[in-house]
Specification:
The protein contains 18 helices and 4 strands. It is an all-alpha fold. Strands 1-2 form a two-stranded antiparallel ribbon. Strands 3-4 form a two-stranded antiparallel sheet.
Length: 489
Amino acid sequence: MEEGASATANWLASIALLAWPAVALFLYRTRSFSEATVWTILGALLLLPSQVSIKLQMVPAIDKNSVANLSALAACLLLAPRTKRVGVSVGLAGLLAVIYILAPVATSALNNDTVIIGGRLLPGVGLYDGISALLSQLILLLPFFIARRFLREAKDIEAIFFALALAGLIYSLPMLFEVRMSPQLSTWIYGYFPSSYAGEMRYGGFRPVVFMSNGISAAFFLSTSFLAAVVLSRVKSPINGLPATPVSVYLGAVLVLCKSAGALVYAVALGFLLRWIKPIVQVRVAVLLVSIAVLYPVLRMADLFPDKQLVELSATINQERADSLKFRFDQERTLLAHASERFMFGWGRYGRNRVYEESGTDVSITDGLWILTLGQFGFAGFIAQFGLLTIPVFRAARVLKQIGSAREKIFIAALAIIVAITAVEQLPNASITAWSWLLVGALLGRVEEISLTRSRTRSPERFKMNWHVRPERRLGESARSNLLANNGR
């Protein structure tokens, strides 16, 4: 198992991981295909132990993401209805996916050298490491491919929102328990705690964690559940028989108790947006958010990001939070300078992407996924990863006007918002999961299907127009001459 939390996890953690394929099979036998796929990925995120894996020789680690992804892949290959077995174009998204998967091999080929700093030796990255990273990234990306191919219908997108809202409603119960009793469930059930108790203390209490990696991840999930409930409230759809509006109010109250400022900001600002503002405006906001996410490294390198102003603004609210934010920006600046030395394909793993003092002491804190990816796999890895996260939002903005159903416009715009904040969340944190990639793939698959359907319906119209307006073009030379002669008479 992995170092750290996995070393102290009990036998039940391993059993839960190994039993998940059976859970997935049950879901596919008892639910619709779309619902089963959604719950296979989402259920693993919520119920399986975080930061625990079973590692066998020459086999990628089996953790909550990989076991759910492989279970869903097997079900899709064996059980997918024929109506869902459609091909998808490669396009820019396919190219970025290939780069994302293959970038570790290029990184390993360029980082065979051993780095010695003080008394610390950082080994070179070999071909085996590159292939191992390639397999890990391929498995993590499986939900993107699955959702892009199999969750392309309007009802599939709605199934995601119903599942997300219902999951938040159910998960709120153990979260409330941990708000009152402290985050103990992972310790009691799986024998370990994935975070630190000191890190989860806020305002005289604790943030709930349940089976997530930390309180921030749990709060972010609940904020997306709240947004899903708000959307269902807007379209007046009940959540498992419960009215959506009271459910959204309840989830908002629980989110306040999670004591996570970022998640609360997402919920308040975007909840108002999703409930009251037109979908076209929502999509424009989503485009703005993903643009910030994908341009963030460039803005930081050019010193155009207003980090100093943000620290000063934060200081007017809470000096402790301002100091923490300043420390984070300082760390990013140092790590970015180190990453720029091997800018295109990065430094690889084994801590080579981190910064050390002359004595060899590690002085790095790499919280954001963007700086982790940039340091390990370079600009190629970053642009592939964040490009995949952002392309569906840009595509959604292009096709929204082509959607005739007002209801579907609401769901597409809302999913674009959730994908956008998922991308933005990877700037301060590294919280990308299999569920995140499923949402990204579902949005891309649906907007591609809308564009394809639109092109199919427009082609016959052009054909009919040409058939009736210029019939002589369909005739042979002799017949056309006779027709023109008759018209002349």
